[in-house]
Amino acid sequence: MTLKKNVRTIRSPQPLPQAEEHRQTRRDHAVEIAEDYAEAIADLTLETGEARVVDLARRLGVTHVTVNRTIARLQRDGFVSSQPYRAIFLTEKGRRLASASKRRHELVVAFLISLGVSERVARLDAEGMEHHVSAETLAAFQAALPRTGQEGRKGQEG
Amino acid sequence: MTLKKNVRTIRSPQPLPQAEEHRQTRRDHAVEIAEDYAEAIADLTLETGEARVVDLARRLGVTHVTVNRTIARLQRDGFVSSQPYRAIFLTEKGRRLASASKRRHELVVAFLISLGVSERVARLDAEGMEHHVSAETLAAFQAALPRTGQEGRKGQEG
DNA sequence: AAAACAATGTAGCTGATGCTAAATTATTTG
DNA sequence: CAAATAATTTAGCATCAGCTACATTGTTTT
What we know:
CATH architecture of the largest domain in chain A: Orthogonal Bundle
Strand content of chain A: under 5%
Order of helices and strands of chain A: HHHHEEHHH
Helix content of chain A: 55-70%
Distance between the termini of chain A: 56 Å
Structural class of chain A: mainly alpha
Oligomer: homodimer
CATH superfamily of the largest domain in chain A: Winged helix-like DNA-binding domain superfamily/Winged helix DNA-binding domain
Number of strands of chain A: 2
Number of domains of chain A: 2
Low-confidence stretches of chain A: 1-12, 149-158
Strand order of the largest sheet of chain A: 1-2
CATH topology of the largest domain in chain A: Arc Repressor Mutant, subunit A
Largest sheet of chain A: 2 strands, antiparallel
């Protein structure tokens, strides 16, 4: 503690406004992984008919052990269903998460590219950013996007 | 495994391109906290002359115990210096991180606001997004920003 | 159908990030 | 300066997310 005692008296014991922003970011992080997995499972199911542990591992850049554990958590939380030694499928809840997530992802990528960011960097940045883009900001991105074919409306040209 | 054996033969054993994006995001996450702490310490040092554990805790929305442990890690990694029971100060490395981080933060907020996002939401979203914005994307934000006084140059009007 | 191989699951480790409760140290006050 | 108060640290717990090594189960191949 410093010598100036009145400095401390000024500080409030309540949480500061900034605290809420940080808390929100931490909360977001808890669902990021669910969104990434849901998206990957949806993609794989479309591509090959099913999502398997090895494929998810390869796509997400982790070992199959990590995938296994995470899938257990996602099943616990109602996002996926799976039988031992079988493929993984999204529940209705998981499908909703995946489609919302995919839409956001594609929109962020398209928006960054429209700003002149290279596709590679756009994809890299979008992967991290997308989870923190609120509905309001997403709408602003959409509005700012030059309509070169109405992205994000019906087709996802990934 | 499915009955169609050729499906598997097609898959490559190497990591997919998407894997790198996810890996990058996870790497980013490792430095997010360092950036948040560095920024908070810089702010507090400016405001009150020193950054203390309780103040950081209040600002970041965590308990003082969490702050304590994180500060130990940041000290281990060379971002801060602190003596037991004393205030926390940024090292040169920490100051660099803080100022880069603050500049990025302010620029992202300004950019979102320029898109029509409300200030409150802009700040909430920026807190999560900023850590995933690459130099290239940041430059694109800067370029797209209407120069209403050259934000991000010298003054931070927070 | 048995052997070989691929995929999945389990055990047990590391480290980061959160917490509460209790101990310690510093500061302020009487 | 001693007591009271405030701040910091330590101890110990939980969860998430990653890993390697090994065990088990499914699939393919011979």
